[in-house]
Fold this sequence. Notes:
alpha/beta, seven-stranded mixed sheet, 17% strand, iron-sulfur, disordered N terminus, globular, eight-stranded mixed sheet, Rossmann fold, TPP_enzyme_TPP-bd, 27 strands
Amino acid sequence: MALKEKELTAGMEAEQLMTFESGNEMAAMAAAQINYHIMGYFPITPSTEVAQYLDQMKARREHDIKLIAADGEHGSAGICYGAAATGARVFNATSANGFMYMLEQLPVQSGTRFPMVMNLVTRSISGPLDIRGDHSDLYFALNTGWVILTARTPQAVYDMNIMALKIAEHSKVRLPVILAYDGFFTSHQKRKVQYFKDRKIVQDFVGECPLDYQFARDPKNPVTIGAHMNGDDLTNNHYQQSEAMYAAGKVFEEVSEEYAKLSGREYPVLDLYKMEDADVALFLLNSAAESSKDVVDKFREQGIKAGVISPNIIRPFPAEAIRKALKNVKSLLVGERADSYGANGPNLTHEVKSVLQEDKENQTIVLSRVFGLGGKDFYADDAENFFQMAIDAQEKGYAEKPFDYYGHVPGHPENVIQPVITPQHGDVYRTGLIQVTEDEETNKLKVKMPPLRALTSKPKRIASGHGACPGCGIFGGLELFFKGIEGDVVVLFQTGCAYVTTTSYPHTSHKQTMMHNLFQNGAATLSGTLEAFFEQKRRGEIEVADDATFVMITGDGGMDIGMGSAIGTALRNHKLIILEYDNEGYMNTGSQMSYSTPIGNMTSTTNVGKSQQGKAFHHKDTPQIMAATNIPYVFTGTEAFPQDLVKKAAKAQWYAQNVGTVYGKILITCPLNWKSEDRYGNTIMEAAVNCNFFPLYEVEQGETTITYDPEAKKKKIPLSDWLKYMGKTKHLLKEENNTILSDFEEEIERRWQRLKAQHENPLL
């Protein structure tokens, strides 16, 4: 339930302004006012906006935070840890599988006692993939050694971000802090909030950055951080860390009291709503607790003494406060947006039960319900049902079903969805029109191709009905590539637009077998799949066509966060194709910068403004990186040059079936986020090739061949002729950005001349 305006303004000592913002906006505002030194980040829904807002503010010169875009969440955690080790103030935001990817780094930071603040915008963990909010990620944080605060409203997100840093840096704590709030509920829903007009108020409250510890900041005083320990020392280390965690509970109360005097807003250890005489109560985290308070009022009007208890801090777990709050409660339902599978109740249920066990006089009946998974809404009716369960247990004197899921429904066989399209395989995809032969003299492949119109009868691999944006170049590019692939395919799609828009349970647009795994592990996953296929086929346990081809589709930054997996797969030389569609950004999370984004390009995390003009560094040359692994075939292609792409697809299949790993990169358009007109899709791709930004070439058995030379064809155009078609790059054509444009042109020319040298000299 929202705080009333008079409650918001009561007791204020510092001047504050009223606004109407979301939790993510308020997290960014708090960070900007504190003016952290460093934010290492990687975009993941629904936390992505925090970095976006900070980048917009940076472009307007509203803070001095150094924003470092990592190659993945694991990298972002490393950036943050390294920065914190210098004594710098460090900030981050993440969600779900991104949090999981950085998980192994978190105990390193808490175990070496370096403070920082991370906003965990809670979201369901895959799999299957669901981008909406629950607490399955938060529960993995419980054993990381980080202090964990929880925020129910955007106002709390702002206030507790300010409190969090003061707690983290306190001499009795010196631990990193997680502030968790609900994805898409608190993170995106706008509410009336207040913030301090003068950021000096915030900075004075937080205080000076403490530097009287052992930081890696002074060459005159060298330190060793993270030295190996034996068991005795490690026990002492963890004991001290444990004591610091419990001290954080007391420090939270002190900081909360101090902040209340400054802001007029109180954040006790427990948010207790009408718990003073409650007979039945709900124990809920974050936004669900707010949704339940009106229901408490309704039950109170009926003479039922109901209440809601919600902690503002769960690490350390406020055991004594909970014991006191539940001393006279007859029946309690603990609702949790996550499960601890097989434990007969999720984590907090057992922690509440453990707390009550210490009070021998307590007779509270405890029920546990898992609810709201994957962002399933929690309405007033649901809160009423929870209260009714607690009331029923109170009347019976016991919980008939102590643990259960809430909101699950049985399936009905009669509702099974029948395929709309008859499955297609085998000969349907074998035209016999493409002939690939090996030239024994050159050790290269020759491809004999029919006119493209002859391949139009070949069925598409992806059915109509996908949810891509108008003008999206992904599926035109993929389908053209697949025209060159004969026979059956097994395809793995990493997370990205191509995956999200083609699979939405219980529907799929894929005509042949499709698997999914996350950005960071697609290539390794498919390598395991194909090796299992081959081994089972060798043993005679399955029948698989000899010409089956395994293809991993990646894009939307997949060759950033997934680069390690791809290189590992390439070095092992598994017989598969890694195909990257390059839309020059993380489009599936909202057009953030990727390492394939060219210099100067505007994205939602490389904004254009007073202090910056788009991305600050050049794009990653992924084909050259993959070619350095010595795989048999690497190529680039685009739908604008169809014959070239289909020919390369046929070669890719031959090498993947006979030699080993293939990598291909196809340029595709994204009108929505490139800010370009749909009708210019093919024109933009053709211009990218003709200005030498995206050269068409192949690296076959280590030898480079340019397959289309715009200079030789007299089609060479200036870089500006490509940039003018896209709203994300038009600012580069302004006179004040001549330096960036010149740098861009010089880098493209340097790469082109190097490519020509490789083309002319097989040893390069």
